[in-house]
Specification:
310 residues, alpha+beta, 2 domains, 6-stranded antiparallel sheet, 15 strands, 23% strand, flat
Amino acid sequence: MQLCDVRIDGTALLGRVHAGDGVHDVEQGPSGAFRWLAGVATVGIPVDRHHPARTVQLTLAAPSTKQVTIGASAAGLSTGSPSAGKPPDRSGANDPAASVEVTVGPRPTTHTVVLAGTPHDLVANAGSMVFDDGTGADRGHFAHLGPPLDQPCDLFAWCGGGVLLRSSYLDDVGVFEPSLFLYYEDTDLSWRGRSMGWRHVYVPAARMRHVQGASGGSLSDVFVVSTTRNRMVMVMRNGSPAVVRRAVGDLVGSLWASLRYEVLGPVLHLRRPQLRMLGLRLRAVGAVVAATPQALAARRTPSSGGQGAR
């Protein structure tokens, strides 16, 4: 089943929902963005904690017509079909008054669901991680604040929205790279700090409130182009040759996936191709090529840690 749209008071939230069990990443289809849902899935809905909404509008579609039960609880919205079993219960019990059974078919339909339960906070970032292809990720993203996120620990990278740095750190390592205006500027500076022997420590008692996706949103043009470009620039500035090769391979793979699934596939089936994502990725590649000379000139060879942890 496809989750095609999520709205509260007219505000689109598809790119900001909490993708719980059975919820896949955002994809582009003939009618726009959507998320695939498994037979049983849980979707967390972001709400204003001071003035929480009472209802949410979900637009759903499925390859064939089926009955779907949507249950609301403090854990979020849970969906399930009779063949897959009832929606999962993650907060004690689904509120019967907030559960609805709807018919979902090939044509997208919108359904209003009452939101039940008390809104609660989730972790947006408990430090940042960098994988072996240079992709950054939020540690503890959308998790509840419990073990191990309630314990201090050393981190590879920190989030720029919630960090306290010594002036000696900035004197030694430098400041944000100006060309990385939005996205990956904090990971780049973290990486440089680690390569020069500095420690980054996570302190769970220090908390800031953050509106997820407020700067651009995971579906916006700015997000797609900036994250693609800036990740590659960061890797060229800091990563080993192996990491750079993997990052380039991933970029080429994403271009091929867009060409295959959003352009060639629809054309072969006599459907209109979806050119937006391919166009954005090509724009990002152009930006990467333009930024490459400067990134390589600023390239830092990671130290062996001889300066010690500070």
